[in-house]
Amino acid sequence: MSHAEVERVLHYPMTPDAPLEPPAEWAKLRQECPVARVTLPSGDEATLLTRYEDVKQVLADPRFTRQLTADDAARISDSDTGVFSSEMASVIPDSGEGHLRWRRLVGRWFTAKRMAALRPGIEAMAEQLIDDMVERGQPADLKASLGFPLPVYVICDLLGVPAADRDRFAYWSDTLLNLTRYTQADMDAALGEFVQYMAAHVAAKRAEPGEDLLSELAKSADEGGLTDAELIATGMGLLVAGHETTANMIGKMISMLLADRSRWERLLADPSLVRPAVEEALRFDANSGFGLPRYIPEEAEVAGTVLPRGTTVVCSMAAANRDESVFDGADEMDLGRSPNPHLAFGSGAHSCMGQALARTELQVVLEVLLRKLPTLDLAVPAQELRRVDGLVVGGLSEVPVRW
């Protein structure tokens, strides 16, 4: 791939040839042009990183900020109305002491110990959703029946939201994260209703604390912890961050395992592979969405290339997770792969705080499906699965299954 070609072709995100496969350009870029100029959907230019070491370095470097609203930062798309550019996104401090304090307070809720305590409840929800799906008959859409509702129900539990309100929560999350399906009026209305709901919910938790995350955070607020606005933003942020990503990952993980059914058979034969299989699905996911954009207010160097101040950098963790120099047989899905230092949850100070929860949900879903529906299979050939072309998180529009 000559430089002239690279300059001419690259529109980001790139489209792969098949729904579960990576775009062919990734491997070429990693080998020949690890610091590449690309055009974003807005028409603005950015710099794309595809190698493991470079992505990891930038995600850990505090000079690469999340100030994507700076005057000279590249706009991701023309409609910057989604959840990332709303005022909600700016309430939670994104760097420095404030960010560390927020992560410390909220992060207490995502320890392995807390996740172990949540596990039986998540298992019961998964069992119920699968029973309901079986009752409705086959073929079924695994994403709509299980992938989409489960993470919302789990987060509602975590936040102390009554079960009766779960479906409203799911609607708000879907509206705020979907950049194409809803009108601006729908999005504004959903955001307004959601903020109003969370404000009332936070006030109720302050008055009568329960055993949930928001009650605990409200208590710590009295010791100079979080303001009401921060509590509301935290509740909303957790729903939005933890919903669509996990919902899509459930669908993609099961699709990858069924696309070559020997993988599924191997897990049926050896359930101890569930944990490493979840990690490998996270690494192998070629359709993880946009990646992480960063903005540099000062000049910086990556892989021997000087990036001028004002550059917007896009870190493609999915491309980095296929880097042959780090993962042997990077283009093979190896269910027992160990070690597996993938970057699916980012790296450094902003690595995904909910990763222990996401892992728990993915492991539980896989365990319960293997146990209850050992004959599970895709109801369409894998190459006929359809990708969602939203911008924020990558996924499949549906995952048709039979059993």
Short description:
Belongs to the cytochrome P450 family. Helix content is 50%, strand content 9%.
Structural class comes to alpha+beta
Radius of gyration: 21 Å
Record field, number of beta strands:
11
Write down the oligomeric state.
Answer: single chain
The best one-word shape is globular
What does it look like?
- With 403 residues, this protein is α+β, with helices and mostly antiparallel strands.
- The chain has a single domain (3-402), classed as Cytochrome P450 (Cytochrome p450, Orthogonal Bundle).
- Helices cover 50% and strands 9% of the residues.
- The protein contains 16 helices and eleven strands.
- The strands form four sheets. Strands 1-2-7-4 form a four-stranded mixed sheet. The protein has a three-stranded antiparallel sheet with strand order 3-11-8.
- A hairpin with a 5-residue loop joins β1 and β2.
- The protein is globular and about 55 Å long.
- The model is unreliable at 80-86 (pLDDT under 50).
- Its cofactor is heme.
- Belongs to the cytochrome P450 family.
Task: Present the secondary structure layout.
Blueprint: H1 3-9, H2 25-32, E1 35-39, E2 45-49, H3 52-60, H4 87-91, H5 96-107, H6 112-136, E3 140-141, H7 142-147, H8 149-159, H9 166-177, H10 184-207, H11 213-221, H12 228-259, H13 261-269, H14 274-284, E4 292-295, E5 300-302, E6 305-307, E7 312-315, H15 317-320, H16 355-372, E8 377-378, E9 387-388, E10 395-396, E11 400-402
Parallel strand pairs: 2-7
Antiparallel strand pairs: 1-2, 3-11, 4-7, 5-6, 8-11, 9-10
Helix pairs in contact: 6-8, 6-16, 8-9, 8-12, 9-10, 9-12, 10-12, 12-16, 14-16
InterPro entries: Cyt_P450, Cyt_P450_B, Cyt_P450_CS, Cyt_P450_sf
Organism: Nonomuraea turkmeniaca
GO molecular function, one term: iron ion binding
